[in-house]
Each structure stands twice: as C-alpha cells, then as structure tokens.
C-alpha cells in the first residue's frame, strides 16, 4: 500500500505531465469591477451622505456625524458590496444554472459595448439595498445615545443613500453612453 504523500505526489506529477486543455475565457466577476469603483467613490459618497444627513442631524455635531457616516459607508463598502454580490451570484446560479449573468459577465470577446456599465447600473439596486440596511444599522447603533430618534436617523440615512446612489447611477449612465458611442 502506497503512503498518502506518495499517492498525492503521483497524482500531482501525472497532472503536470498530462495536462488537459485549459481555457482562459471564464468571464469576469463583477465584484472585481464594482469593489474598486466603490472604494474610489467612497469619499464623494461620504461627503454627499454627510451633507444630506447634516440637514436633519446637525445638532449631533458635524464632525461626529462625518465620522459616523465615514465609518458606516466604509463598512458597507468592505462587507456590504461583496455580500450583495454573493447573493446575486447565488441567485444567478439558481435561476439560470450557469455563471453568465449580472454577477458574473461572460468572456469579454462576447460582450457588446456598454454591457459592463449596464450591468453595473443594474447591480446598483442590490448594492443600494444592502448598503442602506447596513448603514442604517451601524448609524442607529452609533448615534442611539446621542439622538434617541431612530426614525429621524433612518430617514436621514435613506435620503443620504438615495442621493449618493443617484450620483453613482448618473456617473454609470455617463460611462454607458460613452462606451456605447464606440
């Protein structure tokens, strides 16, 4: 009887000496596009949401409100965007049974101009939903002692997200028009 390591070594060597055909056309996971975009957009999004939220919550202190807005948006960018993407990927596999769809684009050679921006525009909806719920939860927890009015905080976070995602949708639509013009 061969040892476990020897068996593993034989299998590894046989794979190395008898390779099969490998294709590099697996497609593009939209998370690789969306996550860096949201990272770059973090500062403008925080400023937009802070400006919207300070109308209702300025009595809490502008610097404190800015820190809470930055923290909640950072958390939703780091955790919420991948979470929403994984949910969309799972849904995509359940509905279509393959990886070609909104969360995972087909190989680039089969894409028409503007499909990446169009897909990103569609993905803004689940990203918005997850982002809003995460930011609402974080902001309410951080401001609970200071504010006490959870309905006002919820309304402010909602309005801030509407404006910031409207900004992201506008930028994405401009990119879509630019891509489609070629």
Commentary on this structure:
It is a single chain. The protein has 182 residues and is an all-alpha fold. The chain contains five helices and two strands. It has helices at residues 4-17, 31-57, 62-96, 115-147, 150-180; strands at 28-29, 104-105. The longest helix has 35 residues, at 62-96. The chain is extended. It starts with a helix and ends with a helix. The model has no long low-confidence stretch (mean pLDDT 84).
For the structure shown, list the relevant keywords.
mainly alpha; 182 residues; two-stranded antiparallel ribbon; extended
Give a topology summary.
Layout: H1 4-17, E1 28-29, H2 31-57, H3 62-96, E2 104-105, H4 115-147, H5 150-180
Antiparallel strand pairs: 1-2
Major pleated sheet: 2 strands, antiparallel
Structural class: mainly alpha
**Ends: how far apart?**
64 Å
For the record, the count of structural domains works out to 1
Question: What's the number of helices?
Answer: 5
Strand order of the largest sheet: 1-2
Subunit arrangement of the protein: single chain
Global mean pLDDT: 84
Counted beta strands: 2
The H-and-E topology, N to C, reads as: HEHHEHH
**What is the helix fraction of residues, given as a range?**
over 70%
Strand content: under 5%
Instruction: Give start-end ranges of low-pLDDT stretches.
Output: none
Outline: extended
Radius of gyration: 22 Å
Q: How would you concisely characterize the structure shown here?
A:
The protein is mainly alpha-helical and 182 residues long.
């Amino acid at each position: 009887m061969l040892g476990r390591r020897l068996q593993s070594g034989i299998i590894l060597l046989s794979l190395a000496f008898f390779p099969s055909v490998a294709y590099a056309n697996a497609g593009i996971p939209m998370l690789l596009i969306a996550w860096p975009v949201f990272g770059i957009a973090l500062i403008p999004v925080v400023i937009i949401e802070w400006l919207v939220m300070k109308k209702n919550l300025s009595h809490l202190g502008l610097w404190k409100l800015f820190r809470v807005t930055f923290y909640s948006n950072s958390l939703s960018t780091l955790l919420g965007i991948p979470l929403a993407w994984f949910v969309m990927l799972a849904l995509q596999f359940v509905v279509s049974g393959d990886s070609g769809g909104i969360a995972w684009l087909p190989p680039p050679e089969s894409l028409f101009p503007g499909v990446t921006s169009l897909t990103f525009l569609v993905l803004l909806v689940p990203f918005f939903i997850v982002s809003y719920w995460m930011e609402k939860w974080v902001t309410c927890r951080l401001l609970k002692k200071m504010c006490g009015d959870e309905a006002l905080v919820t309304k402010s976070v909602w309005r801030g997200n509407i404006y910031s995602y409207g900004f992201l949708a506008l930028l994405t639509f401009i990119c879509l028009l630019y891509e489609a013009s070629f």
